[in-house]
C-alpha cells in the first residue's frame, strides 16, 4: 500500500502544484524556468508517481474490499467508458464542437472514468486509486473555473474533423480496451 500512496502523493502533488501555482507575471515558475524545462520536470515527477501508482496498485490486489460493488455497477462503468475515451481523445485534438461544449474534456473524462470504476470496484486499492483521481478532477475543475479558464471561447475556430477523429479514435480505443487491452494492461478481463 505504501507504493500506491507514495505514487499518488507524488503524481497529484505535481498536478496540484500546477493547478494552484501563481500565474502572476514575474512570479510564474513556468515562465521563469521556461516552458520546456518546466514541462520536462513536471513530466519527470508525474512519470515517477505514475510508475509507483501502477506498481503499488498491482502489489495491493489482495488488500480486501471496502464494499461490494453493485451488480449494475459494471454495466454503468461500461456505458461511461465510451464517452470518457471520446472526451479523452477530444482533449488532445484541435478544438471541435465537443471541446467547446465540454470546456475541459480531459477533466470530464477523468471524472467519468473514476466514477464508473468506483461503481464497478469495491476493493481497497481501487477505491483509493479511483477516489483519488475523482477528487483531483473535481478540485482541478473548481480551480480552473475560479481562475477564469473557461476552455475554448465560443468564437474559437472549430473543426468537424477533430470531432469525427475523437469519436472514431475514442470508439476504437473503447473496443480495443474492452476486447484485448484491459487484461493485458491491468490483469483483469472486462468481459
Notes on the protein architecture:
With 191 residues, this protein is mainly alpha-helical. The protein folds into 2 domains: 1-60; 64-191, no CATH class. 74% of the residues lie in helices and 0% in strands. The chain is built from 8 helices and no strands. The longest helix is centred in the C-terminal third of the chain and has 27 residues, at 160-186. The chain is globular and about 50 Å long. The mean pLDDT is 94.
Furnish the topology, listing elements before pairings.
Blueprint: H1 2-20, H2 29-33, H3 35-59, H4 73-92, H5 97-102, H6 105-120, H7 124-147, H8 160-186
List low-pLDDT spans.
Answer: none
State the secondary-structure class: mainly alpha
Radius of gyration: 18 Å
| Beta content | under 5%
Largest sheet: none
Distance between the termini: 27 Å
Helix percentage range: over 70%
- Report the strand count: 0
What is the general shape?
Answer: globular
Q: What's the total helix number?
A: 8
The number of domains:
2
The H-and-E topology, N to C, reads as: HHHHHHHH
Amino acid at each position: 500500500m505504501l507504493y500506491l500512496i507514495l505514487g499518488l502523493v507524488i503524481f497529484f502533488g505535481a498536478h496540484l502544484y500546477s493547478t494552484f501555482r501563481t500565474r502572476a507575471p514575474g512570479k510564474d515558475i513556468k515562465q521563469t524556468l521556461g516552458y520546456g524545462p518546466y514541462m520536462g520536470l513536471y513530466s519527470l515527477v508525474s512519470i515517477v508517481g505514475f510508475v509507483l501508482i501502477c506498481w503499488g496498485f498491482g502489489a495491493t490486489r489482495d488488500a480486501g474490499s471496502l464494499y461490494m460493488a453493485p451488480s449494475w455497477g459494471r454495466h454503468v462503468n461500461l456505458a461511461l467508458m465510451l464517452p470518457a475515451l471520446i472526451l479523452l481523445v477530444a482533449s488532445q485534438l484541435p478544438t471541435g464542437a465537443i471541446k467547446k461544449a465540454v470546456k475541459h474534456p480531459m477533466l470530464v473524462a477523468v471524472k467519468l472514468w473514476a466514477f464508473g470504476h468506483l461503481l464497478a470496484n469495491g476493493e481497497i486499492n481501487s477505491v483509493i486509486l479511483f477516489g483519488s483521481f475523482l477528487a483531483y478532477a473535481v478540485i482541478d475543475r473548481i480551480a480552473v473555473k475560479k481562475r477564469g479558464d473557461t476552455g475554448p471561447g465560443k468564437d474559437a475556430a472549430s473543426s468537424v474533423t477533430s470531432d469525427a477523429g475523437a469519436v472514431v479514435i475514442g470508439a476504437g480505443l473503447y473496443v480495443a480496451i474492452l476486447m484485448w487491452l484491459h487484461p493485458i494492461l491491468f490483469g483483469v478481463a472486462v468481459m
